[in-house]
Design goal:
alpha/beta, 11 helices, 8-stranded parallel barrel, 2 domains, 5-stranded mixed beta sheet, TIM Barrel, globular
Length: about 375
Amino acid sequence: MPGTTLFPRNPTRAVRIGRTTIGGGHPIAVQSMCATKTWDVEATVRQIQDLERAGADVVRIAVDSPKDAAALPAIRARTRANLAVDLQENYRLAAQVAPHVDKIRYNPGHLHHHQKARPVRDKVAFLAEAAERRGCAIRVGVNCGSIDPEKAGRFGGDSVAGMVESALEHSALLDGLGFTRYCVSLKDSDPIKVIDANRRFAAARPDVPLHLGVTEAGLPPEGILKTRIAFEQLVSRGIGDTLRVSLTVPNHRKGEEIAAGRQILDDIARGRFRSVPENLGKSLNIISCPSCSRVENEAFVDLAEKVREVTAYARDHAITIAVMGCRVNGPGETDDADLGLWCAPTHVNLKRKSETIGTFGYDEVLSRLKSELDRLIASRQQAQGAA
């Protein structure tokens, strides 16, 4: 496969993640994330091995509790994969997990949830010290739906500016601590915002390696198309050192994320670009988070498929429906959608923007969703008629 070095690359510094190095002119690494419960050692090791066979350079797993953290020594003993760990909302587990992984990912917006009186700089210092002591890299993972509350809204309607400001602030914090073995990600479900955010950050900090991704890209093939749009625009400009294609697929199909990422890179290297559809942003847009270990009911994947089926009649309406699988992404990252579903273990929370309409069983939410969709279409048509 031709290398992406056919395009000039940003002069990012090299960051080692286990036996893989990103940045510094190294090939763009492709990664994915396990959808298993990390405390289930057998299932997690099996999925790590499946993703390695699919060609993953880095495999991410989530640690959401001490039970997950306690499983890491057994997982590490059974695989040499380059492991990244997602600390979710509990940064204090960093010291416990660092001996068994190669990279720690934290979300700046989540640091405020624990020990709220402790300064952010102290929390970042704790993470950097844990990583430094064990030779781990760090990813500063900024997500559109979980920006630090102090930054959210500071830039008016420019949500991208808040993401970039957060990433720049945490880069400066790590630099000030003398920790430079880090990369940054700026993710949104809108590929246009992903392009904008990464271009702004890369212009300000061309030295920092970037992890690319469209979060909650959704079901294939639409999720692959959204991701392709962002990657084509960024990689061709020399931006991006590692990437993930985040798809809503069942556990046994997680390898499709790796295949999609490799195909997109190969096409870019060969000059095979796809034109952006003229109706992007002007038609029905279903976003859904990737299947991962945070999903609290695997019925979420089936529900996302059914949402696409029952709303197909609205394809020509510029309406966004978000389907989220967990409490981490669910509440915040459905706020900007016209209609949102975030899935708990036994029920689905149906929302209209930030307003909760109600909670419904998995077997009854679709009919209510359709009613709300019909109501929304009718109200827009009435408003257009009045205009």
